[in-house]
Amino acid sequence: MSKLVTELHIIGENGNMFDTDMEYIIPLYQRAYAWEDKQLTQLIEDINDVAEDSNYYIGSLIVSKQFGRYEVVDGQQRLTSLYLLLNCLGIKTKPTLTFACREKSNYTLRNIEELLLENRSKIDMDRIEPGIQRGIRILSHELTKDHFDRESFMEKLAKIIVYRIEVPENTDLNRYYEIMNTRGEQLEQHDILKATLMSYLSDDSEKGLFAKIWDACSDMTGYVQMHFISKNNAVREAIFGSEWNSMPPNSWQKYKKAISGTTQETTGHKICDLIEKNFKVEDDEGYVDGDVRVRFESVIEFPYFLLHTLKVYVSLYGVTHEIATSKIVDELLDDKKLLDAFNRVVSCGITDTGRIADSKEDFARGFIICLLRTRYLFDKYIIKREYANDSADGEWSLKSLHVSGQQSKKKAYYGNSEFTRSGERTPTNDWRTKTNIMMQSALRVSYTSPKVMHWITKLLIWLSEADCKNIKNDAITKFDKVAENIAIDAVRENFFQVCSNGVYAMGVNTPHIVFNYLDYLLWNDDRNGKKKKYSDFVFEFRNSVEHWYPQNPSEGTFEQWKDGVDQFGNLCIIQRNVNSKFSNMSPEAKKSTFKDMIVKGSIKLRIMSELTEKNGDKPASLYWKERAYKAHEEEMLGHLKKACNIE
Question: What is the C-alpha separation between 209 and 199, in angstroms, rounded?
């Protein structure tokens, strides 16, 4: 880690973060303490959410060393809140936090204990700063609630880290603060990571090159090619070829050549260009189908993409932990542990060539190349949301960037990513593109948290392995099968291996991937058949598992089903906003009341609705409970067992 970045534990064996000989002073240009309920309760919740197995980053503190003390440039609200929190917990702190020219604030900080004890006779209430007093009251209230577990909280607090970042000497602090205040943002972990990795490079020109690639990759809107801007597209073509669609090189020297001298990248414009009549700022959007303008939205944010890329890097270079029994990367993709994840790889990682810690410069170069190449693959082969013109209704998309026009007049347009063998016709590719979109979108809506989107990591590793050999040959035609195998493994492990003795009754705990993979199979069978009943089906965020025949019938209007209501045949997946109205109705009432929702819903749900019919003298609900659900279950399980090779 850079010498200007220090890892501070809030509490530890040797005291707390305020047990220091250096004073933190809040300068007068900073606003007064202003955190209220929302921010302070979130602070408590963040600490309570800490896992026990690793450290947890909670923010950054930007300081400037001035005359033997730290002047706080950014992060004073969090710093003051942590000072108040420690005191509210009864942890003694040195008086190392002060406010410049704010006597009331300083008086209040020195009398926290008396305020907590409500010893008003011992303090001058006219000298108390209301904002800090309010913060003490809120924190004290949160820490004395009935459910508050002090012992657990203290254990988790010991895992909390703040990064103190010193700005370089001779920094114009007024200008720096103005920029930070305009952004209104804390420095994020990925900002700190960028600075740390750049610090491994000794050459300023290489640091500049690293920053340009990083900045292009960090913008997750659109396609990465469009974030390399230069005169006559020189940089873009040097990296991605004349068609802007070639795999970026795997050579650091080629990047140094591409982004240097006459091809220097710049996002600015000369005044002589700006005043030209036809001047137009280039944007990240492009076109499909002639004049239809599109924009794209990534399914993950940049910190998570960094974690995926780190796992790709670890896989490609065979990185292992120096302690054989320890994992080099966590299973969970936790953006709060981004710095911890990279620190572990750098500090503890070993490859065939030795310890990464002994060659940090090579790691920085290798990782930034891996980042760009992985981002190129991500853009081309991992689904996005595509929005046409000004529409707010997006659709799942798998497209590649292409160019039209010549020289400086080149413009981006987008067409389906290719999954064909050489010589195959476009309709064949469109068929495969659709299959890939459906399979990936089934995975996407099954795993809604970015922390568990392991399917993205697995696909990126498959695309990247052996110098991306799988995108250079006919193996790419099987990309949908690679994704499908991820779904199959999940259904086997979390459904078939959990359910025993032929009883499939997980109820609302049935994993969403089971329903979504089943819908994929039903859609694919229908597409290959003659009827084409489900050609309109798309995967949406249906996040609530419900009983078709309810657990608790409305006001006892019909018979309760006690012994089979949780069976897979009686379950469906719907949008959560329908849940409250949907849950207690009879099957025939649901069929008639939610007709519009059902016709656009899960394919399994559509089939269940079709099967809900009376049989002779038996009402539809009774017939469903006695016989129809079981036949439906056997048919649906048959599709899943065949696909998962379950006997």
Answer: 13
